[in-house]
């Protein structure tokens, strides 16, 4: 048994004996305890704060005396006077071990901090960004042993931080000499720690000790919206978030029209590339201003996007993505320089693009896989990212399958007669009265139901303007539950349905939701054509999921995760009545919000997650729905509401769907037309 | 014993048994025989031509029958019809082994061809450039197993050429898809094979089989002149050479004045950086035009230069190089992208800068070390690169030492009263008549001596304009031999020297070389001040060499190599009379021409030589003359002609130097002033 004092670190539980006088930081390093330090133990950075515990620790078998650590020293006193230490804290690099002691490393003193995510079921993000700060003291030049300033800086990084083979960008060489001299041969260096394509590389340096932070952006580059999070790479915090329209919209609302634009116009792809990069730079300006930081401190950027945006952003003509076999120029993850993409952030900033899964399942789907981790799930999870194309993942620890399915824009309110984007005034919640068969609803911007006396007054400014995607889903599901629409998707007559709101509308019937014409507002109806659009969209989604279930060899899934901003607003019950998603317990249908954006943030903050998702994507089995014969069959079955053949037992235990049909020989075949991908 | 036929390859002597029907190329690859192929054995490139030998080969113990190889096939016939094969040649990929055979691989079919250098004593260059061509057949995209076109191209490179982990620049991604389709999934790819900072990377690709070559430039970036060789990377040949003035000259003739310019003028360093890069681009335009190639095919560039040019070219302010301790921003070799230096060659072109040895011993000295390889010499060699600064290397297999010494510009004809740059009309050879003590001379542009009756007519156009560096060396040496200048460097009176050409010139004497004033030409004289300048220059050079000899622990060297364009014109005898170089057998004093440029060419053509010179430079022991007390002592001794203390026994066995001195109490102490570095 050693006579040296015993040190126990919590929460890791790592323990060891150290000679009296050993600094706590030294002990932590020797034991591999995750205790941060930027200044390397020189009492400058205060990142190594620890909380010693005193008294009896029976769990660890240690009794800690009051003098277990050395007395408060002048460095700690100076820090206390200047900035203040939290009560009970010590600087790990100053406090020396004098007796048995239990040392707690608070979360903020850990290098690999856990960044907590809001959703209870989501794994925390381990903070481990590729670029970190290191304070070093560099040897001065010596004519007897001439070497470059850079080489001596690299020697310091090797000797003081065990960083081997560090290189520097040209712009570092151009600023190195004055910085070293201004800092009296003490500098803080931002080092990108390297990856499989690059050795470690100095990104930036500051004379003396740099007290600031480094930043990164996680960007979800959507066809419509560019959403970004500006993150502090030292704390993992989101400093600012931003969402701007993708300036490419002027070249076409959906992706196929942008591909067409590039085909029809010489230089069109390059024009769209310039537009999206310019949009990105505007966004960087805005988000930096909002976060109150210098955008030159953004040293890393992670992008997720669908394959067409991926190619256009990189300056690759998306021509091949517009036709079978939908060949990507590259599918692997990309490590680039921000400069090569004309991005005006730090001149040495890096860019990471997540891998694409297939020609229609992009880096955005990979990011969803990183965020929702079906490959780490014990139960079988279906992850659906609902958008103009739905990306669908199905899997568990054993295997993950992926496909995309062309849902079309109906879920975004497009191609629906009273449809609109989600915005104040849009109907988002619907309930039909079982007796009167009249709908009441809520609109975005108000919590009141439309039959509340205060409703009209409260929504005054926006009025009722239309139905958004989640509204139309609830609408159609409610119509189905209350016998206004039958299983094949036909709206009955007022007589058949018993609803005074149904009216004959040409060869079919329509349902009146809201009549604001008296006040100059819209008349909002659901036409049978609207029902058909929703049927096609949901059938595409369901049949993609069902195809993956076939390939997996299962008839049911344990849980369903709805990803995408839209997914966050869908009512699980209504989605299941519609037959959008497979039958599952309602409490097992959850929303992940913008999972693609979260995946981008994980990849930004945790460099290990990059190799991880690349490996995951390599192992994902891709299914191309276009060449799967059963897809068509599933699509036809899924056109019925909820489904012509699937039993949906869990759904049927909750609601009883009318079995009556309204077919009187007219159009009732359901929307079996396939649409091409958007 | 195998019953399979025996194949013996010459000149390697590698041998082995192979099943009948094995193509010669396959056998060569399995034995590790250096047989080239770009198309991978598909009968397209014709790089694998071999010469089978028939009959009795007693040395190899083989008798080769006429049917030892398969008959001429249709691929060979087609090649013969289209381009013609040299008599007796076969295509190694087509000819199959049918019986015992001896196969000669001609030099041009070897991958690692030897590029022969002109000088007998110089090692040949092994051709092994970092970028090579590979023809591949790529799998078409498959919707059942989606992957990017790049990933399938990389798979092809792995499967067909054993190239692992190949990456691509962004610009390749932007051109990849149309090229693959245009070439019907067959492409030729230029791959940079990677180095310690970079994985292998695709530089360029061509649809189908590319019949052209790739090019590189080796640039010696001097203070005055930029000299470049454009080389074919497939053959090693120099396609064109170019020399242009360094446009930085307008900021200052010598390096110190450029450093001053950058110190005195805000943005001056950046201005000089722009100037030299622009000059480089002009040079690339010219050299490509001269070589008749597209400059976009220049994929590699190697630069050697002194430390100040090195920094200015890289955009680093050379401020620190202007003052002790002469700290380089970086001393290691640099691997950069041409784009980062604003060089308009191939967009993915690489740049390699050789390492600097010390603050005054630059990448040019490293290139001399690579070319002259003192570290591989069995005998002790002194390598002197004579310029405004002399870089001096001394060493053998055991050890190499290096220093620089501030010779000043006297050897370039500057600061000499009648001095000029080497140009037509400049005196370059001198002989003084032992009896009349009158000089005769030759000028650049003529082979006649000045006492030849046809001389005046022949040089008519240029006239006699001044004395260049090599001329002044011979002049002073001849004056010393013939008793016009004494050992301390004093010109005697006409009476003391017995020369009618000596005349009193203020407080000292001068020597008339040529009087062209009657025809409106110059009066060319050597003043005692000129002698002092030459004394200082040669003393600096000698004392640097002598210091290295001290450090090495020797009193003599086995051989002396004079490098630099100037070195090529120095008469070894006169240099030794002057005491510029240590005493050595005259036939052991040779000229290496532009050894720095040759070193750049070696680094360009042979990628292995880069790691080699980096290792060599790491092991070179640098001596800083400025802080060596003995340097001053050596300098004072070396001010005498040839030397106040060194015996020069070999020199004395060839010439007898007068011992008389002219000191009459006036200025005769020899030039012991030190000059600052240029």
Give a brief outline of the structure.
By secondary structure, chain A is an alpha/beta fold.
Description:
2 copies of one chain form a homodimer. Chain A has 678 residues and is of the alpha/beta class. Chain A folds into 5 domains: 6-109, Beta-grasp domain (Ubiquitin-like (UB roll), Roll), CATH 3.10.20.30; 130-207, Ubiquitin-like (UB roll) (Roll), CATH 3.10.20; 226-353, Domain of unknown function (DUF4445) (Nucleotidyltransferase, domain 5); 368-409 and 533-654, Nucleotidyltransferase, domain 5 (2-Layer Sandwich), CATH 3.30.420; 413-526, no CATH class. The first copy, chain A, contains 17 helices and 33 strands. In chain A, α5 (255-264) packs across α6. Residues 667-678 of chain A have low confidence and may be disordered. Chains A and B meet through α3, β13 and α4 of A and α3, β13 and α4 of B.
Give the tags.
Ubiquitin-like (UB roll); six-stranded mixed β-sheet; homodimer; Beta-grasp_dom_sf (chains A, B); 678 residues; disordered C terminus; Nucleotidyltransferase, domain 5; elongated; 2Fe-2S_ferredoxin-like_sf (chains A, B); Corrinoid_activation_enz (chains A, B); 33 strands; alpha/beta; 28% helix
């Amino acid at each position: 048994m050693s006579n040296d004092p015993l040190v126990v670190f919590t929460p890791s539980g790592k323990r060891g004996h150290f000679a009296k006088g050993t600094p706590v930081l030294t002990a932590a390093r020797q034991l591999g305890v995750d205790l941060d330090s930027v200044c390397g133990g020189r009492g400058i950075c205060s990142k190594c704060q620890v909380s010693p515990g005193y008294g009896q620790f029976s769990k660890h078998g240690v009794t800690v005396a009051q003098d277990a650590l050395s007395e408060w020293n002048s460095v700690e006193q100076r820090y206390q006077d200047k900035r203040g230490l939290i009560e009970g804290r010590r600087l790990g690099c100053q406090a020396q071990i004098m007796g048995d002691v239990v040392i707690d490393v608070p979360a903020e003193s850990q290098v690999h901090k856990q960044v907590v995510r809001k959703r209870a079921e989501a794994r925390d993000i381990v903070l481990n960004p590729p670029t970190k700060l290191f304070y070093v003291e560099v040897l001065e030049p010596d004519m007897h042993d001439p070497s470059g300033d850079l080489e001596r800086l690299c020697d310091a990084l090797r000797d003081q931080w065990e960083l081997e083979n560090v290189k520097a960008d040209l712009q570092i060489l151009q600023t190195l000499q004055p910085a070293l001299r201004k800092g009296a041969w003490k500098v803080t260096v931002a080092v990108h720690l390297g990856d499989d394509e690059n050795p470690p590389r100095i990104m930036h340096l500051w004379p003396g000790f740099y007290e600031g932070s480094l930043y990164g952006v996680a960007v979800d580059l959507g066809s419509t919206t560019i959403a970004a999070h500006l993150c502090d790479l030292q704390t993992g915090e989101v400093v600012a978030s931003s969402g701007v329209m993708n300036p490419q919209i002027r070249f076409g609302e959906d992706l196929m029209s942008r591909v067409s634009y590039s085909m029809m116009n010489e230089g069109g792809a390059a024009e769209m590339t310039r537009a999206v990069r310019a949009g990105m730079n505007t966004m960087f300006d805005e988000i930096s201003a909002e976060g109150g930081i210098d955008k030159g401190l953004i040293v890393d950027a992670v992008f997720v996007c669908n394959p067409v945006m991926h190619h256009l952003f990189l300056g690759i003509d998306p021509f091949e993505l517009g036709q079978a076999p939908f060949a990507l120029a590259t599918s692997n993850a990309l490590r680039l320089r921000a400069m090569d993409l004309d991005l005006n952030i730090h001149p040495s900033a890096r860019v990471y693009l997540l891998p694409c899964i297939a020609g229609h399942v992009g880096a955005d789907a990979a990011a969803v896989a990183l965020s929702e981790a079906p490959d780490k799930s014990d139960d079988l999870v279906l992850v659906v990212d609902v958008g103009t194309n739905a990306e669908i993942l199905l899997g568990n620890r054993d295997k993950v399958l992926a496909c995309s399915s062309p849902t079309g824009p109906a879920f975004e309110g497009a191609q629906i007669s009273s449809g609109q984007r989600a915005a104040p005034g849009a109907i988002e919640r619907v309930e039909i009265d079982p007796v009167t068969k009249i709908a009441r609803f809520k609109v975005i911007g108000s919590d009141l139901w439309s039959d509340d006396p205060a409703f009209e007054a409260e929504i005054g400014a926006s009025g009722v303007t239309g139905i958004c995607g989640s509204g139309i889903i609830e609408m159609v599901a409610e119509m189905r539950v209350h016998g206004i629409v039958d299983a094949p998707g036909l709206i009955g007559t007022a007589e058949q349905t018993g609803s005074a709101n149904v009216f004959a509308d040409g060869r079919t019937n329509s349902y009146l939701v809201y009549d604001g014409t008296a006040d100059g507002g819209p008349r909002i109806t659901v036409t049978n054509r609207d029902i058909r659009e929703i049927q096609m969209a949901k059938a595409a989604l369901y049949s993609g999921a069902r195809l993956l279930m076939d390939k997996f060899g299962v008839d049911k899934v344990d849980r369903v995760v709805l990803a995408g901003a839209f997914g966050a607003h869908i009512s699980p019950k209504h989605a299941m009545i519609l037959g959008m998603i497979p039958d599952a317990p309602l409490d097992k249908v959850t929303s992940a919000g913008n999972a693609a954006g979260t995946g981008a943030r994980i990849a930004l903050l945790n460099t290990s997650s990059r190799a991880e998702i690349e490996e995951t994507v390599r192992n994902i089995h891709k299914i191309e729905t276009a060449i799967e014969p059963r897809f068509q069959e599933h699509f036809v079955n899924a056109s019925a509401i909820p489904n012509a053949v699937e039993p949906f037992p869990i759904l049927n235990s909750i609601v009883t769907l009318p079995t009556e049909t309204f077919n009187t020989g007219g159009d009732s075949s359901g929307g079996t037309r396939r649409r091409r991908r958007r």
